[in-house]
Design brief:
By secondary structure, this protein is an alpha/beta fold. The protein has a single domain, classed as LmbE-like (Rossmann fold). Helices cover 39% and strands 19% of the residues. Strands 1, 2, 3, 4, 5, 6, 7 and 8 form an eight-stranded mixed β-sheet that branches. It binds zinc ion.
Length: 264
């Protein structure tokens, strides 16, 4: 138990200290066009943006900066499929409630209007028969014109976590049925939009680091996590996904694949 706990803490510290993110391999084919597409998205006003993800920190890892910028002039609503209650190995009792609290706090940092916790089983979103209907109802309630979710296109998605795939699949299906929605797909191999989130990079890092701090609640060894993070001075912030595109002057970028679903 102690050894497992220490391994998890080590994984948490490594995760927290990771400087960049996993997106550097998916650069847009045309960075100039991607930058223009990003500026077009950021010009949105009074739109409702529904973010359909599986776990606390999914949205912030890939899109926290973009969502913080959009939240200034639009309504950002997070639809959270699971509360991430399994965590790394199910070692933290009451983890779902802890991660929901951290997610609410992160949402306040980034300016979300609302967060809906569906509380479907962590690791079991694809098997949940309730989930697709819950997603459909959220679209009916919030009537978004912009939707952020996982890329499920076989040729474009980077990898499929079954929960992520279930979220992307459900949201994409409803968007295709309703029409009049632009999808911005995360974790994609074929990005054609880049958002420069330099202006809110600290907010993104604070939110993302906070969401990862659930590991601090591990019994017996959790206290080591914050202690180790502060070795050498200030507690470092982790950015999650971050694309660097020097050719268009972007040091803090988030990538999306844009799919316009026309009005029916
Ligand atoms: Zn996830």
């Amino acid at each position: 138990m102690l050894v497992v706990g220490l391994l998890i803490v080590a994984a948490g510290v490594t995760f927290a200290l990771r400087p960049g993110g996993g997106l550097a391999d998916a650069a847009p084919a045309d960075p100039d066009a991607a930058k223009i597409a990003g500026e077009r998205l950021l010009a949105s006003r009074d739109a409702t943006i529904l973010v359909v993800v599986a776990h606390p920190d999914d949205a912030e890892y890939w899109a926290g900066g973009t969502l913080a910028l959009l939240a200034r002039h639009n309504r950002v609503v997070l639809l959270m499929g699971t509360s991430g209650d399994k965590g790394d190995a199910g070692l933290v009792p009451g983890l779902g409630a802890i991660r929901e609290r951290l997610q609410r706090e992160a949402g306040r940092i980034l300016g979300y209007r609302d967060i809906v916790f569906l509380r479907d089983p962590d690791g079991g979103l694809a098997a949940s028969t309730a989930y697709p209907g819950e997603v459909r109802r959220a679209f009916a309630t919030y009537r978004p014109t912009i939707v952020v979710t996982f890329d499920i296109a076989e040729e474009a998605a980077v990898y499929h976590h079954p929960d992520h795939e279930a979220a992307g699949r459900a949201a994409t299906a409803v968007a295709n049925d309703l029409g009049g929605i632009t999808l911005y797909l995360i974790h994609t191999r074929a990005p054609d939009v880049v958002i420069d989130y330099d202006a809110v990079r600290t907010e993104k890092a604070r939110a993302f680091t906070l969401l990862g701090s659930y590991r601090d609640y591990a019994p017996v060894v959790g206290w080591l996590n914050p202690a180790l993070r502060t070795i050498g001075g200030r507690r470092p912030l982790s950015y999650g996904g971050r694309a660097v595109l020097p050719s268009v002057g972007i040091s803090y970028g988030e990538l999306f694949r844009e799919v316009v679903v026309p009005k029916r």
